[in-house]
Amino acid sequence: MRRRRELPVQMTQRMQVVVQNNIVNAALKPGNQPLRVPLVMRLVHHGAPLAAGRHGAVCGLRRAP
Length: 65
Known about the structure:
With about 60 residues, the protein is mainly alpha-helical. Helices cover about 65% and strands about 0% of the residues. The chain has one domain (about 1-60).
């Protein structure tokens, strides 16, 4: 069981580090420009009302062990 979970956990943690580093670097960059939300996140945010009630169905779909 541990080996099966190890790769997805490592990939998730690596993605979190990359995102965090990008946000920190942008926040610490010299200049007075406000931080902008990435395009992907804006699209997800604006599409959220369209997907209301469907998140459970999407999250429930997975490959059986």
